[in-house]
Amino acid sequence: MKRILKIIILLVLMVGLVGCNKIDEIFDDTLSGEELKFKLIETRNRLQKQNIIIKATIDFGLIRGIGTQEGSGVVIASDEVYYYIITNSHVVDYKGTDTYKSITVKMGTYFGDEFEPERLNGSTIYDLALFRVEKAKLTNELEPINIDARYNDILIFGEMVLAVGNPGLTKFNVTFGSYEGTANLKNVSYLVLRHNATIFEGNSGGALTDIDGNLLGINTWGYEERINLGFAIGLDEIHDFLNSFDELSGA
Fold this sequence. Notes:
The chain is of the alpha+beta class.
């Protein structure tokens, strides 16, 4: 009877009907048995270590003072010297109309390292920005996410997806849901990925992946009236953006 119940639970999970809860709340690391549970736990652990905390501090001057905005990023490549990190440009750039003196971007890793990265590129069209940090400045090695495994691949409607990011006080948060096709958004010139993994403010710039942890997109937009409706920039746009920066092509 227990085995039947486990199979039923797995089938429900595979079609995405469980919803978009934290994996920590659904799967206990002490559980054994089903391959899916172990795969999700393994993927969650890897995504948390690939996720980057981002905080941009904006100096508006004496009258208005200091403002901050926070989000997420993901390690996408490395070479002998650097790790490369992608995020949304709206996480690290000020999009308001007020004048400001400067913006300082600081990042942090799962292992507790904090650093000021070097900015390499940015695009308001794709809402993406690229940074790098010297490996020598970090105490632990980082494993870049796989950005090629699902490139030019056809996503399957209903396939399980995972979203990692830093919403509010919850850092390195991983949620899951399912892929719901593509969508047209106002003021966006390309199709975006639609999914129902829970994302909040602070998830912007974080990875959307498949069950194996391969990158599918960068979470960028949410829907205020429905927390389990998210939109991500797809791999075509991510690769177009990265290809515009020649130095990364050799990473």
